[in-house]
Amino acid sequence: MSEQVKIQKTIYNSKDFNNVVNTNFSQFINTKPVTPIEESINDSLDNLYNLYNTLYFDIPPSGSDDSHLGIATRSLEFLGLSLDDLKNEIENLREENIGLKTQLLEASQINTGTQV
């Protein structure tokens, strides 16, 4: 079950060799212009945002790191924040808002002479 393989050898003289073989190694030279790294990063970011916008409604709202909540949580961590920090701030602002509305109501009742 052996196969016989024919090997053919071609020998070139020095003049013919230079005509047949590329001795300048030009096939190894990159002919594309080199893109600066900033442009490459910007292109990658543009691709990321385009892909995110395309997949926006396919991404689950929550449940894993690959959800909108997971993406938001990682982004907040990168900024040095957490969802709990934001929830606490919202709660504090609501309480402050209620207090300010109460003060405003009381001040307007004093000025008009009406009582609650």
Q: Can you characterise this structure?
A:
This protein has helices at residues 14-20, 37-55, 68-78, 83-112. The protein has 116 residues and is mostly helical. The protein has a domain at 35-112. It is rod-shaped.
Q: How would a crystallographer describe the biggest sheet?
A: none
Q: What class, by secondary structure content?
A: mainly alpha
Q: What proportion strand?
A: under 5%
Our Rg estimate from Cα atoms comes to 36 Å
- Can you give the helix content as a percent range? 55-70%
Q: Determine the number of helices (DSSP H or I, runs of at least 4 residues).
A: 4
Whole-number average pLDDT? Answer: 84
Distance between the termini: 108 Å
Features:
58% helix, 116 residues, mainly alpha, single chain
Write the layout of secondary structure elements.
Blueprint: H1 14-20, H2 37-55, H3 68-78, H4 83-112
Summarize the entry for a quick read:
With 116 residues, the chain is mainly alpha-helical. It is built from 4 helices and no strands.
